[in-house]
Amino acid sequence: MAQGCFHSKRTLDTERCPGEVARAVARAKQGDRAAMRFLYLRYSDNVYGYARSIVHNDHDAEDIVQQVFTRVLTAIESYQTRGSVPFSAWLLRIAHNMAIDHIRRRRPTVDEAHTPLAEERCELEANHLRTQLRDALAQLPDVQREIVVLRHLAGFSPVEIAERLGRSEDSVHGLHHRGRRTLQTALTHAGAAPATMAA
After folding, report:
1. How far apart are CA 16 and CA 154, in angstroms?
2. b vs e for 67-105, b when ≥16 Cβ sit within 10 Å of the residue's Cβ?
3. Residues 58, 47: Cα–Cα separation, whole Å
4. How confident is residue 86, by pLDDT bands cut at 50, 70 and 90?
5. If you write DSSP's letter for every residue of 105-147 in order, what string do you get?
6. For residue range 165-199, what is the model confidence (pLDDT) as tens digits?
7. CATH number of 3-106
8. CA distances from residue 1 to 46, 80, 104, 196 in whole angstroms, order as listed
């Protein structure tokens, strides 16, 4: 390869030695590694500058350069010279697509579950469920309500509840069962029971 062309890597192929580039592309399509190295040396700076202008990050632009030429290794076989469309245009189109894909991968997606409208809806539903639960608890006899609250809201075990209320453990189990069943019925009628409870 002509030495002058070899050192013109910062210029596009339409500016100097287009015949040298065409020959290098033809050899690279046949698997010539030296020709591929020539194309890398000639265009890597162009690809880097172009990618850098899109991603605005030196490290990311360097990664994209490597990705572009890795892609070229397999894609160059499909490259066809089309009139005035130079090899550099084809190469920079690959760089553009990879830079855009890189930005899309790094851009945080907006999860619908965390949008203000969705959060407001969830808060309204939670307030409604709390109201329904409070009303359902109010329908229970005092001792059943106390046992259900101690068991499910305070986290006490049946043994601890029995000791706290001065009742037998069997009594606590029976009252807890009846309280839960009444609570389930009330919440189901109100349309506020969890799916597992309603089932």
Report:
1. 81
2. bbbeebeeebeebeeeeeebbbebbbebbbebbeebeee
3. 12
4. confident
5. HHSPP--GGGSHHHHHHHHHHHHHHHHHHHHHHHTS-HHHHHH
6. 888 989 988 998 898 888 788 777 766 555 444 44
7. 1.10.1740.10
8. 20, 22, 40, 76
Over residues 127-150, the pLDDT tens digits come to 667 777 777 777 888 888 888 888
17: left (phi over 0), alpha (psi -120 to 50) or beta: left
Tell me the pTM.
0.48
CATH class for the region spanning 112-198 = mainly alpha
Distance in angstroms (rounded) separating the CA atoms of residues 148 and 97: 60
Residue with token string 């006490």:
156
CA–CA separation, 13 vs 86, rounded Å? 7
Q: What is the dihedral of CA 115, 120, 126, 127, to 10 degrees?
A: 170
Residues with Cβ within 8 Å of 61's Cβ and at least 6 positions away in sequence, in order, are 48, 51, 52, 55
Q: Where are the domains of the chain?
A: 3-106, 112-198
Q: In sequence order, which ranges of the chain are alpha helices (DSSP H)?
A: 3-6, 18-29, 33-55, 58-75, 87-106, 116-138, 142-148, 158-165, 169-189, 195-198
Distances (CA, A) of 176 to 19, 32, 68, 129, 169: 90, 81, 67, 21, 10
